[in-house]
Amino acid sequence: MKAVITGISGQDGYFLSKFLLSKGYEVHGVLRRNSSMNQGTLGLLPNNIKKHIIIHYGDITDVNFLSNLLQKEKPEELYHLAAQSFVGYSFQNALSTYDANIGGTLNVCNAVKDSSPDTRMYFAATSELFGQPKETPQNEMTPFFPRSPYAVSKLASIWTVRTYREAYKLFMSNGILFNHESEVRGPEFVTRKISQSVARIYHGSKEPVVLGNLSAVKDWGYARDYVEGMWMMLQQDCPDDFVLGTGESHTVREFAQAAFKEIGMDLEWTGSGINEVGLSEGMTRVKVSREFYRPLESDNYRADYSKAKKTLRWEPKTSFRDLVKIMVKNDIEIMG
Ligand code: NDP
Ligand code: GDP
Questions:
Q1: Which of 1, 116, 124, 184 is the most exposed place for a label (fewest CB within 10 A)?
Q2: Whole-model pTM above 0.90?
């Protein structure tokens, strides 16, 4: 079996490539060139794994590149993970987010349709589509109300995929994935920002972590569990859409509390809004700044993943506590 992964240098590409290689797949990855030739998470894979991945340098905004790739490789499966994935950045750079996410997804769909219509495609949709959901928990039937340029781009993309699936009878499935994190999560995402700060404090730093909305509520799982769900979606008889999440909600404040607990610090919270602080033994460990608030918040998330559980037999394996532990422990080791 042959699979192509776009976004191989991101968090999910890291876990998915390892997972597919462990299943005996021939794994091909699309990698963007950059001036420092930094390979992102691909550079974190051990050499004995990395050497099995066949890299194709290219950009998803280039439809000719994608068509040629699919024409040549004709993979059984294509995992379209590449995107500008940071919500905060999308508020400042909406057009480039649309170009990469909407244009890129349209290009991938066209390349599949025209060059390799038997390829089964997974598209990385998101719980951000729900905006501020009016019902809890959220499942495949919950209405979409996107509240960021990122979410708008994923709305156009998921509907592009659904349209191509129906119009051209292609096997294209959408994973509506809730937040998933890991030891290779990008450093600007709140979980990794916290785990890295906690590790620095463990090693002697006195700098507090400065965050935005501590009360934002997300459903956080472990990325390694989720890539298995992506693969399961492509092993079904028919293409479909599936929610993957944990069914548990936590605030940013709770994530920070749990992360500091990993290094034996019990935070006490005092004040409110931008004056709230998290203290441990009289030292300020968490502060709030307007800088990290978004123009609009999307939260109150809790996944109802019962369809994936019933149809795919998928379930998250890693608890919230274990996720926090994995991330903090890894950052302590890296910085040690
Ligand atoms: P990352 O931000 O870690 O990875 C994104 C990847 O896309 C990187 O490899 C990046 O390459 C690549 N990329 C971006 N633009 C282009 C482009 N124009 N051409 C080629 N490659 C490009 O995201 P994750 O791994 O966390 O997420 C994977 C997908 O899942 C994304 O689409 C994301 O939006 C979606 N998603 C993620 C969730 C999460 O919680 N992680 C939740 C729901 C959906 P480079 O290294 O060069 O920047
Ligand atoms: P997102 O859910 O994909 O936007 O992932 P993020 O990790 O970027 O944000 C998760 C939540 O944390 C959002 O509701 C943010 O508003 C909230 N948050 C609070 N403080 C911060 C911060 O300092 N950085 C980031 N990235 N998010 C923060």
A1: 1
A2: yes
